[in-house]
Amino acid sequence: MERAQERTAVGPAERPTAADTASADRPGTANTGSVDRTSTAKAHAAERSGALEIDLELLVHGVGGTTPEKMLDDPRTVRITGDDTAAVFRRAEDVDAESRPGDYRDRPVPEAYVWCNLTSGNASRALWLLLLPFMVVNLAHWMRPAAQDRPRTVRCYGLLVRLAGLTLTVLLVAAACEVALDLAAWQCAGVTACAGRHSWLGLLSPADGGWWSAPGRRLALAALVPTALTALLWYLSHRTWSAYESTRPLVHDPEPGHTSLGSPGFWYGRRLVARLRAAHTAAGLLTVAAAVLAPAAAFDRRRGGPAALDTAGWLLTGALVAGVLAVVWVVCRRGRSENHLDQELDRRLVRRLPLAALALLLLVTVDAGWSRPGWHSVGRLAGDTTFGGLVLSQGVLVIVLAAVAHDLHRRTPDARAAMRGLGGPAVALLGCALGGVISGGVAQRVSDWLDGTGTSIAGPPVLLTWQASVIPPVLGVLLTAVAWLSWRTSRLSRAERTAVALGRPGEPEDAARSRRIARVRAMAVLTDRTPLVVTVLCAATLVLGAGALAGALATGKTPDAAAGPAHTLAHGAAQSSQALGSWLVGLGFILFVTWGRRAYKDPSARRTIGILWDVGTFWPRAAHPFAPPCYAERAVPDLTWRMDTWTRRTGGRLVLSGHSQGSVLAAAAAWQLTPAVRRRVALLTYGSPLERLYGRWFPAHFGPAELGSLHREVACWRNLYRLTDPIGGPVRISDGDGPAVDHPPLKDPLAYGRTPGHPLPAPILGHSDYQADPVLAAERERLLARLRPELPGQRPQPGG
Predict the structure, then answer these.
(1) What is the distance between the alpha carbons of residues 611 and 169, in angstroms, rounded to a whole number?
(2) Do the Cβ atoms of 188 and 201 come closer than 8 Å?
(3) 389-417, pLDDT tens digit by residue?
(4) Measuring CA to CA, which residue among 534, 482, 520, 527 is closest to residue 694?
């Protein structure tokens, strides 16, 4: 009777529209679309008769991915809705479950949402590892502390991260300019000894006297390399947006005072991504234009060349400054629009900014290619000022960002927040440092490769050389932190042996078994040490980066002959560190390529790389448009549409069951539901990083207040975890008068020794195979009983 009253109360505004029905049958489901439409018609008929009583369990897998056959424990599965990228599956026998509600009165209909192809379905995506600095900076945007009634400070935080992301784009394009324009075209091609060792530079060598041998023309031709890099970044950003992030979310009215993850426009950043993509693309092209224009304009002013060239140089310089101001204005002018679904694009001025920058670059290359008698390439291009200014501006931005984050954390303290609210600035610093280290290491490695003797060319700017020298000390700090963590883990493992023995009373002691369980538990605790490791790494990076900047300003690449022995010794150590750093960068690049090729052939390696992106690309691209794509902008709308249309169509209740990263997607999708639908949803999470990782590192979105509101708004919530799980943990939310959200830690292994139920040694499951624990099935039954209080609970089986 209660169900019938609920269905009668549904007004016209709540019934599925034609768009909703069309969205339920996504492209790529032609083989199952007719089956789904038939079952839908039968379900509507059953609903009109008032006889429908059915529940659904929607399973969402975690990191690494899986198959629908494994999730549903049945070799015969059918795709209900979705495409080859992400889809919902059922067992073949459950396809028409809505037309047979009597067969499912004592159990829910299982469905599996498979989204692994969003992150690890293509081997070429392994090369997205090269976009790691952009992804790290983008994460910093979402790590701000929780803030109440501080909108201006929050906007200031987002603006600072966007500016840091812009400097990172300029830095990496400038590094490409340094390699192609300065080291190859200007220095090596201009020296006969260096160009003679590399036949591919013969076209540019002045010894041949060819048309391209003029310095300006060499620079114009070499500019194709950083221009192609910028175009490639633009293409990847545009292509991945079209493939992954263009899914239209479910439209609903914003809820006052609700968490931002429940905002209608949170998972649809179409306008901001397009805006930032235009600005960053223009910034990259303007960086290339500046690298070509600066030496030509400096020569014209120094030698008093033709007045026409000097005037053209000033005009181009003015246009370049205007373009830079336009890019900064576009980045600063607008942030994310989350309170409403913003489907508009910016005006043509913003969208045409890259074309204007490209036109300016073409004019600059034409100007540089003009004949300038007496112009010869000597020394290196003026890159010290450029890279020094970039590093200094990044340092200032990170320091101001830390001050803003500290103010937000101080006004809304959170004891569990990582690094006392400074996680965002720390990650932004690591992203900028990673870009600087890659730039310096690649420039030094290319310089060593081009200049076999080490005497024919001047090499990269001093600052990049010093940045390459930072790599070995940073690795030394990391190794020291790893050694300290290993020592702490060993001590904790010895302490855990006592806890393992006390947890198995009455069973004979097995020393090897106890040591193995204790070690796994101790290793799982390492996740909670991550903030400390990041703090040490950031402190070392800040000190070493400041030292590199100071060393670049104070010394040149070669020691002064009049300097004392201490200075000579320090410079010799710096040179050794620089050489080692350049080789380490080359080794790292080889490892990247090797890993990518292995991922092409080895599915397990592809799955490993997919795990990295499952964790790092959950968040939308809010600060950097060239970061890897956000899979949640497809997965969360998929889950929301499925839950909303199914509950409205059938009037049933739903158990949303998420493992690991799937629990994060489940929580995000539950926040996107309307309150009426959310009250029909029970949440079952296991191996969940919701509080342990996301709550600590992203307190503004998964903090105690946000998780508490989710608990109050869904029908019920139960969370399972193990002490041996390095990822999952408790969510630390009480349920008032009812049962707590967190179940006591599950037994792992299920049996300590050999038992009648486990005659062979039970494995230590850790983060996997939660479905194998009988507690999960029991907790699902309890959630169903709480969802349907009008029905009696399942009668316990004998011996169960």
Answers:
(1) 25
(2) yes
(3) 999 999 999 999 999 999 999 988 888 89
(4) 527
Residue 112 bridge partners (DSSP): 59, 89
Q: How far is CA 737 from CA 178, 734, 740, 741, in A?
A: 65, 9, 9, 11
Name the helix (H) or strand (E) containing 37. helix 30-49
Beta strands in 20-147 (DSSP E): 55-60, 77-82, 87-91, 109-114
For the ranges 364-368, 490-494, 700-704, 791-795, which has the lowest average pLDDT?
Answer: 791-795
> What fold, for 2-114+631-787?
Rossmann fold (3.40.50)
Please count the other Cβ atoms lying within 10 Å of the Cβ belonging to residue 264.
20
Hunting for tokens 């997205």 — which residue is that? 128
H or E, element range at 684: strand 681-686
Task: Please choose, from the candidates 260, 357, 364, the residue with its C-alpha nearest in 3D space to the C-alpha of residue 314.
Answer: 364
Q: How far apart are CA 621 and CA 617, in angstroms?
A: 9
**Is the CB of residue 767 less than 8 Å from the CB of residue 728?**
yes
Domain-by-domain residue ranges, the chain?
2-114+631-787, 133-177+215-428
Side-chain half-sphere exposure of 271, counting CA atoms within 13 A: 18
User: 387 is written with which tokens?
Assistant: 């890279």
Cα 11 from Cα 8, distance rounded (Å): 8
The torsion of the CA quartet 498, 500, 501, 502, rounded to 10 degrees, works out to 90
Backbone angles phi, psi at 66, to 5 degrees: -160, -170
Q: Which of 98, 117, 5, 111 is nearest to 54 (CA)?
A: 98
Tokens standing for residue 93: 């026998």
Cα dist from 526 to 188, 465, 475, 535, 765, whole Å: 48, 35, 19, 15, 17
User: Bridge partners of 656?
Assistant: 58, 683
Look up the pTM and report it: 0.85
Helix, strand, coil content of the chain in percent (nearest 5): 65, 5, 30
Q: Which residues pair with 657 in a beta bridge?
A: 59, 684
Q: What are phi and psi of 599, to 5 degrees?
A: -65, -30
Contact criterion met (CB below 8 Å) for 341 and 269? no
From the list 101, 250, 78, the residue with the least C-alpha distance to 643 is 250
For 744, the 3-state DSSP assignment is coil
Identity of the residue numbered 391: V
Distances, alpha carbon 303 to alpha carbons 309, 313, 316, 382, in Å = 11, 13, 18, 17
Quick one: residue 209, left, alpha or beta (phi over 0 = left, psi -120 to 50 = alpha)? left
User: Can you tell me the mean pLDDT for 474-484?
Assistant: 89
> What strands, in cross-sheet order, belong to the sheet with 87-91?
77-82, 87-91, 109-114, 55-60, 653-659, 681-686, 716-720
Chain-centroid distance, C-alpha 98: 38
Tokens of 270: 């179409």
Report residue 454 as tokens.
Answer: 């080490």
pLDDT digits (tens, 9 = 90+) for 666-711: 999 999 999 989 999 999 999 999 999 999 999 999 999 999 999 9
What is the C-alpha separation between 606 and 599, in angstroms, rounded? 4
